[in-house]
Amino acid sequence: MESGGTTGPLLYAVVAAVLGMLQFGFNTGVINAPKQFIENFIRDQYEVAPDLIFGVIVSIFAVGGMIGCPLASWIADKRGRKFALLANAVFGVIGGLLMGFSKAGSSVGMLIAGRFFIGINCGFATTASPTYVSEIAPLRLRGAFGTVNQLAVAFGLVGGQILGIDVILGSDNGWPYLLGLAVLLSAIQCLMLLFIPESPRYLLLVQSDEEKAREVLSKLRGTGDIDEEINGMHAEDRAAKEEEKFTIGDLFRIKALRTPLIIGVVLHLSQQLGGINAVLYYSSTIFENAGLTVEDARLATIGVGSILFIMALVSIPLMDRLGRRTLQLWGLGGMAVSSVLMTAAFFTYKDNFTMSIFAVIFTLLYVAFFGVGPSSIPWIILSELFGQGARSAAVSVGAAVNWFANFIVGLVFIPLTNVLNNLVFLPFTILLIFFYVFVYFKLPETKNRTVEEVTAEFKK
């Protein structure tokens, strides 16, 4: 087999790593369907508005993510990629156990703590999994393997939504088992991770163990013909050491770095403040408000995850054919139009089943346009706008901003719905229009351009 192909050990290692991203998707989508049962549980414990506590349960997940992201990056550099993935799985087990036993322990605090720990787990995954996969993937398959992370998220989302329907685990007795399934995912990942190798790149460039790196790389590639790849790693490392290193503070001080940082941060904000997580966290509530029965709303929610999964597949070939800027504009523009149509449908659904159906269709269209570009482009754009010396700092800022915006949307959506009712998507629509205009005037196309060409544009 030629160097650069897929082998059994390579595929096994990729699957073991991306189970963390599947966990991320699962825990994003799983909280949606059992909302009313969790609120009943809260009502039994406290004499407060249960929707406010539920908002905390939803949004504390993002606080954990904000902590998990930089922690994973630090551990991956200090102790290795494999150790970071194992630590990630341990956080998942802790979070899953707390959520799974929260009802038996009559403790809302356990549920909140469990969502916090599972948030750390998912923050870890969004850093550790893509890093490991990109470092073990053959160069010519790195792009395709990178998209496996997005597919795992979408697959986990659909899985969580399907398991949340009332005939499976979406019931008053079933919801602790539904949330507790995170234990099973993390336990499986933990066992699988014991048999994967350390990243050969980490072994070679951080631990300076070329013999071990060659041994691992030969096993992953299924061939001993790996000299070219080893030499390529050395060359890339020499180039990185010669390039000036920049801190997070430098990104704000130096104009040539500040401009692309602002662009990347705004794209991350567009992903969250466009309202997508309001749909992912609360689609059952949205569909019920649009006139569907509880059962039909949960079935429609499965459509949300399914559309995201399909669009993740569709966007893979389009990314390099049409370019990042084009897809981002199509996505944001389509989301804005769909958001207006959703709002119109919400105002006309009463005693009109046809408009209830249109409300669902427009919501699914909104999700589909999100999948076109805004779902994945913010996560890759910063690595294409910055050179090696500033890339790590820029990506970490982008991830922190993304998780923080995620937290804000999760926390305010229910109170916002109580205030604005059918106009709840109006603020998101206004923001989507702003993001569209910003991208149109500020985002350069990075398709078929080297990082050097892109960064030179910002230095002018």
TrEMBL record:
Gene3D superfamilies: MFS general substrate transporter like domains. GO terms for cellular component: plasma membrane. Keywords: Cell membrane, Glycoprotein, Membrane, Transmembrane, Transmembrane helix, Transport. GO terms for biological process: fructose import across plasma membrane. The keyword Acyltransferase does not apply. InterPro entries: GLUT, MFS_dom, MFS_sugar_transport-like, MFS_trans_sf, Sugar/inositol_transpt, Sugar_transporter_CS. Pfam families: Sugar_tr. It is a multi-pass membrane protein. Residues 13-447 form the Major facilitator superfamily (MFS) profile domain. The chain crosses the membrane at residues 12-32, 52-76, 83-102, 108-127, 148-169, 175-196, 261-282, 297-317, 329-349, 355-381, 393-416, 422-441. The keyword tRNA-binding does not apply. GO terms for molecular function: fructose transmembrane transporter activity. It comes from the Eukaryota. Its main location: membrane. It is found in: Cell membrane. Belongs to the major facilitator superfamily. Sugar transporter (TC 2.A.1.1) family. This is Major facilitator superfamily (MFS) profile domain-containing protein. The lineage of its organism: Eukaryota, Metazoa, Ecdysozoa, Arthropoda, Hexapoda.
